[in-house]
Amino acid sequence: MKRRPAIESQPVRATVLSADALEDALLEDSINGMMDSSGERVKTILIVDNDLGFLYWLGCMLCAAGYVALPAKNSQNARELLSRLNIGIQLLVVNSSMPGARALAETLRRSQGQLKVIALIGGGEEPSRAFPGADASQHKRSCLGELSEIEWLETIEGVFARAAATTQGLRSSTGQPS
Prior knowledge:
This protein is α/β, with parallel strands linked by helices. It is 47% helix and 14% strand. The protein has helices at residues 19-32, 52-64, 75-85, 101-112, 127-130, 146-174, and strands at 44-48, 68-72, 91-95, 116-121, 136-139. Strands 2-1-3-4-5 form a 5-stranded parallel sheet. The chain is globular, with a radius of gyration of 22 Å.
């Protein structure tokens, strides 16, 4: 039996990511690169509410409608999630009565550019007083069914449509191409 000459090995220098970091990087790439059938980037929505049943219902409904939904049970959890994933969001749906809700919305608006906000409000609250500066408000329903789904999708699509119209109007007034 003839011996093969020893192969000189070179040290391999590669960045080794932990399993969590690798998973986060893959998720970030997949979310940021998702396109819908028309070629537009899929919109990412952060939902912040302490009602886990509502989070699950709204998240599933938004995913079925073609959005990426990221659920968080409080403001701190939302910040940690966005920091960990390092992704941009286009819409924040936040319970207006949660501690830190307004501060979260303000911080995200500064860092996320054109972020839109929908405030979840209780039955007796005035929309404009419940969460000043919100682009829209929506009541949480005790009965979450098909009618609620339609109402939610209309609200979300209305916020995005107004944002697109505003952006288009700004481009037209400055002479920029669409």
